[in-house]
Batch of 2 targets.
Target 1
Amino acid sequence: MSVGNPTQVEWIAWRGTALDDAGEEPDAAADPADQAGRVLLLVESGGNRNHLAGHLQGRHHIISPRGGRLPNEPFDLVVVDAAGFRRWHRQLVDAKLRDQPTFLPVILIASRRDLRRRLKLFWDTIDEFILTPIEPGEFMERVEMLFRARRLALKQRARLAYVVNHDRLSGLPNLNLFMDRLTSTIMDASVLNKPLYATVVHVPLAHVLASLGHREFDRAAAVCASRIRKLLGPGVPLAQLGSEKWGVIHPVGMQMDGVLEVCGRIQNLAGESIRIDGERIRVSPRIGVGAYPQDASDAAGVLDCAISALAAAGDAGPMFYSKSDQDKALRFIRTESRLHEALKQEQFELWYQPQLCLEDRKIVAVEALVRWRLPDGQLVPPLDFMEVAETTGLICDIDRWVLREACAAVKRWREQGVGIERVAVNVSAEDVCAADFADVIEATLDEFRIPAAALELELTETALFEISGDSLDKLNRLRKRGIDIAVDDFGTGYSSLRYLHQLPVTSLKIDKAFVKNVDSNETNAAILRTIALLAQNFGLGTVAEGIEAKEEAAYLASLNVSVGQGYLYAKPMPEADLLKWLKSR
Ligand code: C2E
Ligand code: CA
Ligand code: CA
């Protein structure tokens, strides 16, 4: 088979090959002997068509043209008679060309008279002919022979596509396939109007080449490839872009935190040296990231940006092409490393914000809100580190610390009779996923000897939406024990009625966005009325957060929203201030 024509190779290259089909070479030995084929029947003579269809049926799929066009679905063999040939000749030639370099066989059904006439002109489109009257046994034998040739051609094409698309040494998809996938992923990103990141990894191995020669260089590169593959895990497709360069296309819409997490895994390559020819070789990857659309609008441009970012990258972390992305990434990486220290050195504080009964203004609970105090005394609000804490899993440790602190506090308050009987803590989706989530909460209640009713968990709608299976069992267990569960930020997520009915939820916490100016903003008022009605119908309590004005509180009370929280009453504050505030009321 000739692969001389570059446009043909390019075309074969992409057909039916996925970027994540790493290393699986098509099996050349396997011969699926009797597979059904798809036969395009272009026989215009009704008698012959019925006759042939009768023989083919049951063994092969028969495909017919629709209207004046050949069908879109693929076919493996064409059976055509003289009239059909005159009608479809042009389109058949096109179909054959499109399938090149794969053999697409055409059988002509013809009388001796047909053969002598004009048909000779089209001879090179025909691969086999059958004379009428048709002898069924002979016809079927020729069909099977041609199918065999077709299957062989398809197998060769798959093999060729594999060779064209994969790296010879690592078996990973190569630059060809990477660029093709990047092009099509950018098209998806463009349709969805979402960003797309591509990462290039370079592991400098020139010193191996210089000292140990090209064979050991190849081995070192192959070891790097398989280590990166392992570090990334099965969900992330990896391509080999050059002898010491690899590429990853991140899913459309993945945000920078996700990209950083993947890059962090690649960075771990440096953790262990590799052994080549008895020598220990240290490998330190450098990582560059380019983004669509902010860096470039096409695949070649995004790749160029990633490569040029690479030039500036050190071993500390990935380098983004755009300055603002790079600043953001640095902030993320620094926050992550500082958060580890913060946990060890107990730099967190717990602040409390009162929740009041809107009718009589009595305190029903406080919400515990975490604060991070930097060594220089500055306070970091949770929104500045929550994203990092959640993506890196550190949130679980933070929330466990919060839970203990909050339970200890409520125990103190109950003993001192200060009038706070309940505390609400925020819970992330990551917390609920932990196998011992329910155990830890129950053990903490037991340890501080406080009743379950003293604790409320706040889960955002988004977190609740992801809950099923084991996590649902854990929540049910906690609810059975008597712990209340509130839906935080209600109305900002999916607001699906499914979870209100299936999950063990006890109250809705109306997001502050809807409370704002509710007395004058008709849309917010309508939303609030709806939520209040929903809560009533589902038998759920309601808490409104972010109440800043008396008018807002009055409107909420008129809707029978029972509990309110907001700057109108008190801001979140440390325990000492909370106790002072209580005394001063
Ligand atoms: P959230 O749970 O919705 O908490 C309410 C946020 O609204 C708090 O911000 C609170 O200070 C603020 N707020 C309260 N009243 C008013 C008001 O009248 N007006 C305005 N404009 N804002 C008000 P904060 O403390 O910065 O917390 C932000 C978010 O961080 C929380 O939102 C919560 O999702 C998360 N968070 C805080 N502490 C924790 C924690 O310990 N664990 C977890 N997983 N998340 C936490
Ligand atoms: Ca909350
Ligand atoms: Ca909220």
Note: The pocket of calcium ion (ligand 2) is lined by residues 367, 426, 458, 488 (CB under 6 Å).
Target 2
Amino acid sequence: MERYETFEYDVLVVGAGGSGLRAAIAAMEQGARVGMVSKSLLGKAHTVMAEGGVAAALGNVRPEDNWKVHFRDTLKGGGMLNNWKMVQNYAQEAPERVLELERWGAVFDRTPDGRINQRNFGGHFFPRLAHVGDRTGLEMIRTLQDQAVKMGVNVHMETTITRLLQEGSAVNGAFGFDRRSGKFLAFKAKAIVIATGGLGRIYKITSNSWECTGDGFALASMVGADLIDMEFIQFHPTGMIWPTGVMGILVTEGVRGEGGVLKNNQGKRFMFDNVPDRYKGEFAETEEEADRWLEGDREARRPPELLTRDVVARAIRMEVNEGRGSPHGGAYLDIASRRSADYIKKKLPSMYHQFMKLANLDITKEPMEVGPTSHYMMGGIKVDPDSQATTVPGLFAAGEVAGGLHGANRLGGNSLSDLLVFGRRAGLAAAEFASKKSSWSSLDDSEIAQCLSEALAPFSRAQGENPFAIMQDLRNSMQKNAGIMRVEDELNEQLDIIRKLKVRAHNAAAAGGREYNPGWHTALDLPLMLEVAEAVVLAAAARKESRGGHARLDYPEPDPAFAMVNHLVRRKQGVLAVETAPLPVMPGELKEIADAKGAVS
Ligand code: FAD
């Protein structure tokens, strides 16, 4: 049998983004021996790209803000499909998790009186996002990484996990390979935390980094974990759509929070005409009122550009569909005519430098051409709201890969605090689970043999297919058939395409050696990408209504029949299938908060 090296950890954390790092810290605080695996280098996980900020009701800018308003805003943004207990845990704990980061050395932007500053973001009733210019993710990762390294985490960088291993129904380890050397590794673990981030890369146009191929959803599903809300993918309204060199790259919502406005090809600010009924009365009705709000007038209402992402993304799509779009099929985002060049460079430094460098576009002088880009997965591995335990014993999940907190749509800034709150909870629960096991269970030789044979198979397919071609077909077809606007026939067509792509993926070939071999890596990514794509399409086909991030052209309105149900995708006898599950019932006192208008005390 091909050689492999074995490692033993109490808790194995798969993923080194914000959630993985926070889980590792929590588990180590409990005395667990923690190993962390990351496809990329430590410090380079996708979290580093986060720009706008981390949402927490600190009340530093508006003292009226508190966890109840954050709870209400998050549920409202999520179309009330969120798991209420997760939202409660989240809103209550987020402020302490941000303050803790500060104690560990994170340097946030300040208010004039020296407290952590907070900025406006879509769907948040009060300015709530603690930030570090537009480089918040970088500061978070730097801080968490310092803390985890100081505590002695064992990191396996540039290592990809391809399979979770099981003893009975419980997980007892993981199998993977070192991307640099091509050598194989097996991990024995008493508990595992999946923290592998999102799946944007299954789409052609995405803001997500290369590692977001959806591995964690698929790894968990393949060992029997339930997935929840997989139809809800957030298409961020303001991805660059032109020039091509920056296609998909995100223009942070911070641009709109700082006064940027959306215009169509007639120069009209169209968001005033696109306020949905559920938000009527909460947003400014004139440009003058919107500007007063930006200047800090507490009597004025927010600009409609700060509506939730699903609403703004769909409004842009409608402008395009009705012939008022920009030349490349989007809208104009203009901050240049609204703020001075100095202000823009100070408040949005990365935006300015990035587009200047990559596309020679000066956002202090001209508007950006933007449109929806696949950005965030609201759904994910179903977890217990307190412990982040999945439906598989010993397996926990946190961060973007876990579902339930965001319901049908996530508010900007809520992901970074999700990572902190639930990363910590997952780490604590995993360490506790591990502490009840006196030793590691042995790995099953035949299971390892199968992992090795699957991993090496692409090298034996001399007549096989180029894996990049298969991946491109997947990404293009997902974009076309399961993108921002969905319809029954196309979803069914996509299921058919995925099934054919699965057959082709079994014939994906790799040539050359095993060191840094991108063709081989892609061939091994494909089965996971196809599993998660199928789960998305199945759930999207089952939800015959439009709600949050899921928009159906054939069912354009929310349907009360779907208002109180989540969809679960689960493997049964090797086949993925969708089931409906009723929402957990919210206690009366929380329902009152959820239904409240305006500030809540
Ligand atoms: P990630 O940070 O994606 O980390 C995943 C880790 O898992 C990586 O280390 C990766 O290498 C590893 N991994 C993946 N698969 C495997 C595998 N098979 N084996 C081993 N390791 C694996 N949210 C906010 O709240 N505020 C913002 O301002 C904000 N801005 C954003 C800006 C951009 C451009 C983007 C794209 C997103 C933004 N988000 C923001 C969303 C937020 O950044 C992400 O949701 C969040 O960082 C995800 O963190 P995570 O820890 O779950 O996963």
Note: The radius of gyration is 23 Å.
